[in-house]
Amino acid sequence: MGEILKIDDISVSYGSIRALSDVSMTVNEGDIVSLIGANGAGKSTLLNAIVGLVPLKGGSISFAGETICQTKHHSLSTDLIARRGIALVPEGRHVFADMTVEENLDMGAFMVRDQALIDKRKEEMYDFFPILGARKKQKTRSLSGGEQQMMAIARALMSAPRLLLLDEPGLGLAPLIVQDIFSKIKIINEENKVTIFLVEQNARLALKSSSYGYVLENGRIVLQDNGEALLNNERVQKAYLGA
C-alpha cells in the first residue's frame, strides 16, 4: 500500500515564533508511524496543521492523493478534512465532561446521517471498550483518566476514519493503563485497518509500536528511520530513552 499522508516542506508560525520549519514526512497506509520529541518541539502543532486547525506559512499536506492544506486561503476547512477520513484525538482528550459517554460518542458521529449505522458503531465501541458500555449513561466527568482516554479514542472512531491522529494518548496515565491503551491502538491498526499517526512522550513505547518514526527538535525533523532502528540509535537513546 502506498502513502496516505504526505507532508511536504511545511512551516507554521505563531506570530513571530516559528513552530515548524520545512517539515516533510510521509505515512504509508496501514502503518503505525510515531513522532517523538521534547515538549515544545512542535509535535501538537504538526497534528493540528494536518486537520486545518493552524494555517500553513508554506508547504502543503496531501491525504490520499488530494491536497488538503496549503496556505490559509487554499486549505480545506477542518470539517471537510474530517469528512475525507481523518480523525484527531487531541492532547488532554477534550471530552465533553457534562455529557454522558453515549452522548460523547454521538458527537463523534456528527457527520453520519444514518441512525442505524450510528447505533451499530456505538455497540462496536462498547464491545471494544467494555468499560464504556458499562458506563454509557454516566457523565464523562465521572470517568477515570484512562477511561476518558478510551472514550476519546472511541469518539474518534465513530467517524470510521482511514487515518487516526493520536496526540499523547498515554499522557498522565498509570503505566498499566498506558499499556492497555497501546494494545488497543495495535488492534485498531491491525484488525480495523486504520492507519495511525502517533505523538507520544513515552518514546520507547511509541517506537516499539511503530513501523516507522520521526524525531522532531525545535520544529525540524532531525532523524527518521524504522522504529527498531530509532530505538537503537545512540542519539535517540541519550535524548529520549534515558540510556
From TrEMBL:
Residues 5-243 form the ABC transporter domain. One of its GO terms (biological process) is L-amino acid transport. SMART domains: AAA. GO terms for molecular function: ATP binding; ATP hydrolysis activity; branched-chain amino acid transmembrane transporter activity. Coiled coil: none annotated. Gene3D superfamilies: P-loop containing nucleotide triphosphate hydrolases (3.40.50.300). Keywords: Amino-acid transport, ATP-binding, Nucleotide-binding, Transport. Transmembrane segments: none annotated. InterPro entries: AAA+_ATPase, ABC_transporter-like_ATP-bd, ABC_transporter-like_CS, BCAA_Transport_ATP-bd_LivF, P-loop_NTPase. Pfam families: ABC_tran. The keyword Protease does not apply. PANTHER family: HIGH-AFFINITY BRANCHED-CHAIN AMINO ACID TRANSPORT ATP-BINDING PROTEIN LIVF (PTHR43820). Belongs to the ABC transporter superfamily. This is ABC transporter ATP-binding protein.
